[in-house]
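Reviewers asked in the last cycle whether our approach scales beyond single polypeptides. To address this, we selected a multi-component target totalling 226 residues and predicted its structure end to end. The input consisted of the following lines:
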Amino acid sequence: MGRAPCCDKSKVKRGPWSPQEDSTLRDYVEKHGTAGSWISLPQKAGLKRCGKSCRLRWLNYLRPNIKHGGFTHQEDTIILALYHNIGSRWSVIASQLPGRTDNDVKNYWNTKLKKKLATNHLAAAAATINSNMLPYFPFDANSYQHSQIPLPALVEAPENALLPSAPATLSPPFINADGSCEEDAFLLDFMPNYDLLDAFDFHDKFNHQIDYHLQQEQPIYQSFTY
DNA sequence: AACTGGTTCAACCGCGTCTGA
DNA sequence: ATCAGACGCGGTTGAACCAGT
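The resulting structure, written as structure tokens, was:
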């Protein structure tokens, strides 16, 4: 004995939305809002749809400023870092990406990003972020309960912050016998982390740090401090 | 051109949580 | 404190599309 369905399936239309239905829903919501009840909205708007279906269509497709597809590398890194910290909390992750919906982020993760993660350096980079940069995510993933509390904006690390150490992939043959580092190899190999840092506004500081280490010919695989 | 297998993504489902009576 | 209805979420499905043969 399951729970009662939210509406009579035999009396509502299902499947893809027509342009006419989209137009009807958009016009109604823009004029009246959701009026506090999605369940009663279809009847008021003159739609033969389930309220939940209307809500989903509006949130994922019709509401203003929605972006579809074309995820940037910066968005990739934010998704990765948050996924490693809080898991499949798609709505929380989407809230950090303006114009993205939880459904979009979830689909993107399941169809593309997961595969990408399995095949390149991003895994190591995300793991590094997880262990070394977690203090700079200004929330506690364990105490962040299923709720409407908005996630605070990401913050810049303090001046004396300890940056992530280079990933394990920065081992020979990229490191020379005397401890110096092949610049090109380093940058190529470290690029995933570099991009992650860029995403969190560390770009300039970290760039200077790389330049410094390269100029000084110091081993770059040691930890970074300001 | 026709078929097949893989991919994408909009939409659905059902459960947990919230809220108001 | 309890309950029922509504909401919001993550997991899953399946039709449409694409690429390869």
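Chain A has two domains: 12-62, 72-226. We regard this as preliminary and will revisit it once experimental data from Aim 1 are available.
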